[in-house]
């Protein structure tokens, strides 16, 4: 059984939500989350974002991100 510390859990929480983790990693995270409020909070945040991305507002979000990136890029180039 894999045991993760907080850093490892936070690194993997995104992949976990997207179903991209191996069974071993998944069970390690599932064991850690109920025992750690910090990581549980981060997980809740990520899962909200993931749910939004998967919902109909995805187009709007991606447009916002693109616009933001474009602005950042423009600022860098000035
Ligand atoms: Zn933790």
**Strand/helix succession:** HHHH
Pick out the low-confidence regions. none
User: What fraction of the residues are assigned to beta strands by DSSP?
Assistant: under 5%
Helix fraction? over 70%
Structural class: mainly alpha
- Coarse shape: elongated
- Counting DSSP H or I runs of 4 or more residues, the number of helices is 4
Domain module tally: 1
Q: What's the N-to-C terminus distance?
A: 51 Å
SSE diagram, text form:
Elements: H1 6-17, H2 23-32, H3 37-54, H4 58-77
Helix pairs in contact: 1-2, 1-3
The protein binds zinc ion (ZN).
Describe, in short, the structure shown.
The protein contains 4 helices and no strands.
Word description of this protein:
- By secondary structure, the chain is mostly helical.
- It has one domain.
- It contains 4 helices and no strands.
- The protein has helices at residues 6-17, 23-32, 37-54, 58-77.
- Helix 1 (6-17) crosses helix 2 and helix 1 packs parallel to helix 3.
- The structure holds zinc ion (ZN).
- Zinc ion is lined by residues 6, 9, 32, 36, 38-39.
């Amino acid at each position: 059984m894999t045991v993760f510390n907080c850093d490892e859990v936070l690194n993997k929480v995104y992949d976990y939500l997207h179903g991209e983790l191996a069974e071993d990693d998944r069970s390690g995270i599932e064991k850690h989350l109920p025992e750690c409020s910090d990581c549980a909070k981060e997980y809740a945040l990520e899962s909200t974002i993931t749910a939004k991305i998967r919902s109909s507002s995805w187009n709007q979000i991606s447009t916002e991100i693109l616009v933001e990136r474009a602005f950042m890029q423009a600022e860098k180039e000035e």
